[in-house]
Amino acid sequence: MAYEKAWADNPKINKTEQKKLVKDGLKIFEDIPHYAENGFSSIPKEEWDSFKWAGLYLQRPKEDGYFMMRVNVPSGILSYEQVKALAHICKDYGRDVFDITTRQAIQFHWLTIEQIPDIFNRLEAVGLSSAGACGDITRNIMGNPIAGIDPHELFDTTEIVKEVYEFFQHNEDFSNLPRKYKMSISSNVNNSAHAEINCVAFTPALKEIEDKEIPGFHIKIGGGLSSRPFLAQPLDVFIEPHQVKEVSIAITTIFRDYGYREKRHLARLKFLMADWGPEKFKEKLLEYTGPLHSKGKDALKTWNGGYFYGVHPQKQEGLSYIGFNVPVGRLHADEVLELAEIAKKYGNGEIRTVNSQNLIIPNVKHENVELLLQKEIFKRITTQPLSFIGHSVSCTGIEYCNLALVETKERMRRIAEILDQQITLDVPVRIHMVGCPNSCGQRQIADIGLQGVLLKTKEKKMVQAFEIYVGGTLDDGGKFNEKLKGKFRADSLDEVLFRFLTVFKNTKLPAESFFDYINRLGLEQLQKELDRIAEELEEKVS
Predict the structure, then answer these.
(1) 216 flagged as catalytic
(2) Catalytic residue among 70, 103, 352, 443
(3) Residues with Cβ < 8 Å from 53, sequence gap 6 or more?
(4) 10 Å Cβ neighbour count for 313?
(5) How does pLDDT run across 61-75, given as a tens digit for each residue?
(6) Element at 464 (helix H, strand E)
(7) Are 393 and 349 in contact (CB under 8 A)?
(8) E strands in 23-164
(9) pLDDT in tens, 133-157
(10) Which of 135, 349, 390, 441 is flagged as catalytic?
(11) Where is the Nitrite/sulphite reductase 4Fe-4S domain positioned along the sequence (predicted)?
């Protein structure tokens, strides 16, 4: 259906919006075969950003012509054939770098324009796509990674996520949104899809309708991170499962037609929601959907941080799912191929990705669990990781990303391993590292968030450094972590964290979480401890 671009006559829209009026982002798919045939030099520089709609970013440095690609994995569910196809793309074209993202997608690097058509064909052959994985469009739809096998889910959301995802795929009615648009749909009662930091989140709920309790969803609108983070706000509506697609289309239409297009840094749905508020947004939503039920009973119980380590019984009798740690989300092609064969031999071939950058092998018969876990590969990709490496998340960083200021991925892995050697705690501490304010590594929701910056030394040189944030959670509606004063050189960060966490260990209560500890002591006391650590390290250097 054609729609009216209400913003087309606005002379104040930004340059990106002006360009999108002339040519829709999805049109890049029509151009890629020509560019692939004629090489990177044939791509006009002004077209580089258009590749985002195909899930492609030019990696650092852009002029070298290598692309990063994200592949959508709705709900994180991959079949055996899909896993194999992704592994071979990684092996043949991606220089053996296979990353799981914080939105359950798969990310490749080092791709050239000549390779892209073959990669598209391989993805299409197994029902995968990179369309919309980047750009001003609906991104990969996050879901419950144990959908359909979760003993505690209200119902299986797999087909609902698939229906909504497929509606928006290659749909030019919704490919020109003001900015990126992130959605989650999950009935996992432990908030595994991180509802509060999505633009739109469908969360599990119950509602008594005609004397019968019906499972369905509540919705939260306007979450998002980056340099101005917002927690999504609930609307007073209850959505039945069959209404999800209709409501998704209505909310996306509101964002498309009323979202801000003048200043690009204010264009996310979170800014519209912050200005309108829940009541006005609900009023506008009902104009599109007609009457909806009012809120029912929230079925969310807690937040599991996206962690599923270990062996767990499925709702299907006799079967287990097994959660594994992938250190900072990075795998090698041969590892992925081996995991696929293990999943096929002991399960049904599925592998599921998690937004904590980890993975799950489902549908393993109870009697085969121990046989599976004896495989050599599970010494690195383990069900029982050490505490820090098991709760570390990292963005791509300066290794490939044009926006990053510092190295992150390998640094986070090294620091986590050092901390695991130096200190043992009775509770996990979640550490997220990001290379810039865009926060692909979701720094704001971590116990300890590490954000990369540049620091001018006494010799007036710029060096990589980090700021430290503490106290993030998505429990009870969520709370973003708060910044402590100071910038710490990257080469001393492991020592800073060791000393900081040693203070935590020596002054915490038994089984007290890092979040509860911060709330008990207060930021002022933590700042004093961090200042003391900084002074000691300064004296040590001098």
Answers:
(1) no
(2) 70
(3) 25, 26, 28, 29, 131, 132, 134, 135, 136, 137, 175
(4) 13
(5) 999 999 999 999 999
(6) strand 462-470
(7) no
(8) 56-58, 67-71, 77-78, 98-100, 106-111, 142-143
(9) 999 999 999 999 999 999 999 999 9
(10) 441
(11) 135-289, 393-531
Set 84, 103, 139, 179: catalytic member: 179
Among candidate residues 6, 479, 527, 542, the one with its CA nearest the CA of residue 253: 6
pLDDT on residue 541 = 65
472 is catalytic: no
Amino acid, single-letter form, for residue 497: L
Percentage of residues in the chain having pLDDT higher than 90: 97
Tokens coding 242: 């069959």
Q: Which of 323, 411, 440, 471 is catalytic?
A: 440
In the residue annotation, 508 being an active-site residue is answered as: no
Residue 540's pLDDT is: 77
pLDDT one-digit tens code per residue, 283-314: 999 999 999 999 999 999 999 999 999 999 99
**Burial environment of residue 449 by CB neighbours within 10 A (0 to 12, 13 to 18, 19 or more):** buried
* Helix/strand/coil percentages in the chain, nearest 5: 40, 20, 40
- Would you give the DSSP letter of residue 194? -
Per the annotation, the verdict on 520 as an active-site residue is no
The catalytic residue among 180, 207, 261, 268 is: 180
> For residue 416, what are its two tokens?
């986590």
Query: 316 to each of 162, 235, 257, 313, 320, how far by Cα in Å?
Result: 22, 34, 44, 8, 8
Q: Which residues pair with 92 in a beta bridge?
A: none
Per the residue annotation, which of 347, 435, 452, 478 is the catalytic one?
435
Quick check: 273 and 281 in contact, CB under 8 A? Answer: yes
Q: What is the amino acid identity at position 5?
A: K
Backbone angle region of 245, left / alpha / beta, with phi > 0 → left and psi within -120 to 50 → alpha:
alpha
CA 352/CA 379 separation, integer angstroms:
19
Alpha-carbon Rg for the chain, nearest whole angstrom, is 23
Residue tagged 């996050």 (tokens): 142
What b-and-e string marks burial along 199-219, b requiring 16 or more CB atoms within 10 Å of the CB? Answer: bbbbbbbbbeeeeeebbbbbb
* pLDDT at position 475 over 60: yes
φ and ψ at residue 307, rounded to 5 degrees: -110, 130
**How far apart (Å, rounded) are the C-alpha atoms in residues 229 and 224?**
5
Beta partners for residue 234, in sequence order? 220
Is residue 134 among the annotated active site residues? no
Per DSSP, helices labelled H in 404-513 are: 409-422, 493-507
Q: Is 70 a catalytic residue?
A: yes
Residue type at position 48: W
Listed residue (198, 188, 441, 431) closest to 321, CA to CA:
188
